[in-house]
Amino acid sequence: MIMVGSVGGSYGYYSTGRLFDGLTADRTGRTGNTVSYSDLVTDRSSSLDFLLAARRRRQNIDEFYGAGNYLGLFARQLETAFSGKGVHSSDGAVSGTAKPGARVAEYELNITQLARGQQNISKSLPAAGGGAVAAGHYDIDVTVNGQTKRIGVDIDSGDSNRQALDKIARAVKGAGIDASVKSDGGKIYLAMTGKTGEGNAFSFSDVNGSLSQALNLNNKVQDGQNARFTVNGTAYDQAENRVVLDNGNVALSLNAAGNRTVRVRIGADSDRVTDGLRDVIDVYNTMVDILNGADGLGRRGAGITRAVQQQFAGGNGSRLSEIGVTLDGQGKIVIDEKKLSKALDDDPDRVRQLLAGPNGLAAAFTTMARQVGSTPPEQVFAPLQRYRPDYGGLFIDQLR
Asked: Nearest Cα to 304, choosing from 359, 360, 379?
């Protein structure tokens, strides 16, 4: 049994069994006698071509009604895709995310400088060998943004220079400063970077031993600084390269500074819409391929796609073409994703009306899905026929 429309809505149930019990033959010159599908399979007079056609028909029906299940589901997903919001930036200097509740809006940003963290570089040590850091226990006070934390480091007599610096790096990380061992030719050194912002300056002070002094951990090569920028004329001076707008619904990341205006628009989530449209069109095109390749269509088969095909007629077809959605010569839908993406950037409301509005393409897919679910397979696909010369004349077997 094929369940039609079982995903996202129940449109009806049709059994394939009756299609294959519908072999009728007038073996005695009278009508009404039936040859079952199982009889056909074992009937020596049955042609191989007819058997293969019967199997193809069964496969076509399974695939067609199975695709019909997903057509309605994906149509609804396309409609809901427009509820999501995306961030569209004129420049890679700004990126971000938007929650579904974000307002459709436009922002202009001018970024004077990005926030950055203080950077320190230690004294360089030979990459090979050990002994450059004396064995022993060391305590160091690390002050970050006015708050002091004491760290301890134990250097063993057998530690190589790299092992010693690795131990110091791990201890410094524990104080909230990024630290790692870097190589430069035959030398190695400790590179340390604090959190972004002027207020996150850091320094080292020896408490037990003179490790920070010996390695010159306070060698500052870059000061920390705040990000400075404007959003729609409002000035910001802050420690992070991130700004939250629209009551927390929009988060923008600052990626580059420069003497230019970056325009950001909050609108439809282009990727989600494109993916949703691609999914439903893939299903629809599969159904069209099945219909085009069928051995014949029933009285309702030719019109089963009418609701969708009519979307591409007249002025509406021209409007769909303008956003990159067209119909090819086989009745299949083609997407120009670049054209669609530009249309979503330029006028997302227009795209939403054409694709997900009350009379849009998604609604047409839903109509077709319901028609498929309410139409028996024998009305979509024409009966298969063959001549039977084995009962005293020419007879026709029909496989519905």
From this structure: 379
Cα angle 170-173-174, degrees, rounded to a multiple of 5: 90
**Which region, left, alpha or beta, applies to residue 314 given φ > 0 means left and ψ of -120 to 50 means alpha?**
left
CATH topology of domain 117-222: Immunoglobulin-like (2.60.40)
- Nearest Cα to 320, choosing from 287, 304, 343, 288? 343
Q: Which helix (H) or strand (E) holds 34?
A: strand 34-35
**C-alpha distances in angstroms, 143 versus 39, 173, 195, 385?**
89, 13, 13, 89
Pairwise CA distance, residues 346 & 265, whole Å = 10
Least confident piece of the model among 135-139, 156-160, 187-191, 341-345: 341-345
Cα 93 from Cα 111, distance rounded (Å): 9
Mean pLDDT computed over 368-376 = 93
Full DSSP string of 38-83? HHHHH-TTS-HHHHHHHHHHHHHHHHHHHHHHHHHHHHHHHHHHTT
Q: What angle do CA 380, 354, 246 make, to 5 degrees?
A: 135
Candidates 287, 279, 198, 275; CA nearest to 237 is 198
Number of CB atoms found within 10 A of residue 58's CB? 17
Report CA torsion sign: 235, 237, 238, 242: positive
Could you tell me the sign of the dihedral formed by the alpha carbons of 210, 211, 216, 218, in that order? Answer: negative
Over residues 231-248, the pLDDT tens digits come to 999 999 999 999 999 999
Instruction: State the DSSP code for 295.
Output: S
What pLDDT, on a 0 to 100 scale, did the predictor assign at position 48?
67
The token pair at 116 is 């950055």
pLDDT in tens, 26-37: 333 333 333 343
Q: Which residues contact 13 (CB under 8 A, 6 or more apart)?
A: 1, 2, 3, 4
Residues of the chain with CATH 2.60.40: 117-222
